[in-house]
Amino acid sequence: MTETTRRDEIAAGLAGVEARIAEACRAAGRAREELTLVAVTKTYPASDVRHLAALGVRDVGENRDQEAAPKAGDCADLGLVWHFIGQLQTNKARSVVRYADVVHSVDRLRLVSALGAEAVRAGREITCLVQVALDDDPARGGARPQDVPAVADAVAAAEGLRLGGVMAVAPLGEEPARAFAKLRRIAQAVQDAHPGARIVSAGMSGDLGEAVANGATHLRIGTALLGHRKPFVR
């Protein structure tokens, strides 16, 4: 595939996603400006990130540090906002804070401490979202709803970190609207305690409409934007 063909393919994907977001906003009575599209570029090459940037996309999401770090380095000239959205081990905190502006997957106190220490060391302030577990599958990460306030409080108190809000993934096999309604209630409780924590990261390619209807501010879109491709690891 030529770069021109790939650019056209990505442009078509972006147009399709934007049409879906616009329709979801109309249905929910919301303005498009309330939502941030995070292009999830995991397994896709840095050249795709450059095509997205040329099309006006400013927010990019990655979920594996070993792929994200070199890709962010390759694209450092683009002035993008990098979102780390995958489960994060504390031993990767130092690497992640070097390029990530937002970490969506903060789900335990030990990780808060590691990120805060490394952010201070790097002289950066990292926006953190508390990942909420909406099911009982520990493999998918997330703090239990009853533990979310403590994690949020710890982020808010940590030097080098800023509490941005919450994030969740709709559980497999559950109606997304029901899951995102639950997240909306949790997000409101966090915002009541921390008025600046307005981000609600929810919704992917298959359930963005339900997420918009339930107050999402950030949509994490990969497949619908970039298509199905073979795994790529830089």
UniProtKB/TrEMBL annotation:
CDD domains: PLPDE_III_YBL036c_like. InterPro entries: Ala_racemase_N, PLP-binding_barrel, PyrdxlP_homeostasis. It comes from Planomonospora alba. It comes from the Bacteria. Pyridoxal 5'-phosphate (PLP)-binding protein, which is involved in PLP homeostasis. Keywords: Pyridoxal phosphate. Belongs to the pyridoxal phosphate-binding protein YggS/PROSC family. Residues 30-229 form the Alanine racemase N-terminal domain. HAMAP family: PLP_homeostasis (MF_02087). SUPFAM superfamilies: PLP-binding barrel (SSF51419). The keyword Cytoplasm does not apply. The modification N6-(pyridoxal phosphate)lysine is found at residue 42. This is Pyridoxal phosphate homeostasis protein.
